[in-house]
Write a structure and sequence with these properties.
Elements: E1 3-7, H1 19-31, E2 35-40, E3 44-49, E4 54-61, H2 62-70, E5 75-76, E6 87-90, H3 94-98, H4 103-106, H5 114-125, E7 130-133, H6 137-144, E8 150-151, H7 157-165, E9 169-170, E10 179-181, E11 186-189, H8 198-218
Parallel strand pairs: 1-2, 1-6, 2-5, 6-7, 7-11, 8-9
Antiparallel strand pairs: 3-4, 10-11
Helix pairs in contact: 1-8, 5-6
Length: 219
């Protein structure tokens, strides 16, 4: 049984993990018989009212809010090592670009939260597969830019340019497609960067999960 880490960034598309993307990831992993370890940084973030789509002025804990999706405890990413996991998947949501790194503010010049960067670097060094969904490939671009990773966020020119400024090579893909970087053992899919609906994004996420698991077995 493969053990796959699912790296969450809160709860909710505007300030944390995109709930559909995270739930589909968990569903397809469970369906395949994988063991899942949900993890998140131990830090606060600025809350957004998802009805008004405006900041509330409130701050909440990323890991505590991620437990809403996990339906239970979420490990502190700083306490998880590459030895604990066979693979890692990052769902999207604006939290990936704000809470796991500062891509939302600094684009290709941004940096990744140290605990997140350390785990990604260790997984990469160990040759273990990493998947990233929607905007989450930005985290991989910032963390692994020196390795020139091949990634997709769909076809948005501005975001693609920012990924390439971080050192990545962007490949345009449709919502039901994945991009596999065999050299770096990375798998990415656009999901809600393209949408338009949950049935559409499910196709790419299912392929991503299947590919991550197949690359665990291949290793």
């Amino acid at each position: 049984m493969a053990t796959i880490g699912v790296l969450l960034s809160g709860c909710g598309v505007l300030d944390g993990s995109e709930i559909h993307e995270a739930t589909l990831t968990l569903y397809f992993l469970n369906k395949a018989g994988a063991k899942v370890v949900c993890l998140a940084p131990e830090a606060d973030y600025a809350v957004v009212d998802h009805a008004a789509k405006a900041p509330t002025g409130e701050r909440r804990n990323i890991r505590v809010e991620a437990a809403r999706i996990a339906r239970g405890p979420v490990a502190d990413v700083a306490a998880v090592t590459a030895d604990d996991l066979d693979g890692l998947i990052l769902p999207g949501g604006f939290g990936a670009a704000k809470n796991l790194c500062d891509f939302a503010d600094k684009g290709g010049q941004g940096t990744v939260v140290p605990s997140v960067a350390a785990l990604i670097a260790a997984m990469h060094a160990a040759g273990k597969p990493i998947g990233a969904i929607c905007i989450a490939p930005a985290v991989l671009a910032l963390a692994l830019g020196g390795h020139q990773p091949e990634l997709t966020i769909g076809n948005d020119p501005g975001t693609a340019q920012a990924l390439e400024a971080a050192g990545a090579r962007h490949v345009a893909r449709a919502v039901d497609e994945i991009q596999v970087d065999a050299a770096n053992n990375l798998v990415t899919t656009p999901a809600y960067m393209l949408g338009p609906g949950i049935a559409d994004i499910a196709k790419g996420i299912e392929k991503l999960v299947e590919t991550v698991l197949s690359r665990v077995k291949a290793a």
